[in-house]
Design brief:
The chain has 2 helices and no strands. The protein is mainly α. It starts with 14 loop residues before the first helix and ends with a helix.
Length: 70
Amino acid sequence: MKKVRTDFLFAQPSFASGFARTLDLWGVLDDYNISVTTLEADEKAIAADWLVVGQDIADAIRNESELNAA
């Protein structure tokens, strides 16, 4: 099962861009993932939150069934 990430609003920089940010005193390299509207960003965030809740429930069921099988 693929894990859902809830940090989609934040850019995932590489090591090189992270190092470059330490030298970027004026914030030129700041980069963020954007949504067209705030409603779209909220919808994505709420959907991702519920997917994570579902994953947590599935993980709990799987762990419980493994404990009962042992």
